[in-house]
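Good morning C.,

I know you're traveling, so I'll keep this short. The sequence:
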Amino acid sequence: MPVSACGWDRPRGRLAQASRGGSAHPPLRAARHNAGNHHPANEPEPAHEIRHGPCRRRQVPHHRSSVTEAEAAVRAADVLIDVREADEFAAGHLPGAIHASRGMLEFKLSGNPALAARDLQVLLYCKTSGRAALAAAAMQDMGYLNVKSIAGGFDAWVAAGKPVHKPELPSFG
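The tokens, ready to paste straight into the viewer:
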């Protein structure tokens, strides 16, 4: 299927017709699309795609390990990174994982000499795998060569009965 100038997968002509106020889309959809929104209302954003600027996208090229492959991937990884928020990490995480929330990942990577090597085997995870996919794309943009994420994330790991590290709270009694 041809790709329009703004990166939308749709037959040629529909976008141009919509932008002229034609009947390809209802007027609200055409207005939203032309205003810079990436997807008209009621059309879900395609899975595993990252947006860079208005109306540009690329496929996320990282590998996603299923939960059955994840145990081997954890053992093979040089670093296991939990990109969830701090409270999620504190409630429980994969054994051996370090915490670097998605919003701070680039800062933590660039500020830690132990994580500077671009050929590290990196395994990422979050709650369900959305943030991990974004983190993998960001790491690849930074030059990291071997980035994987766990499909289904922490929720799939727990549902499969895999081990979880839960820090003990201090006792003041």
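Safe travels,
E.
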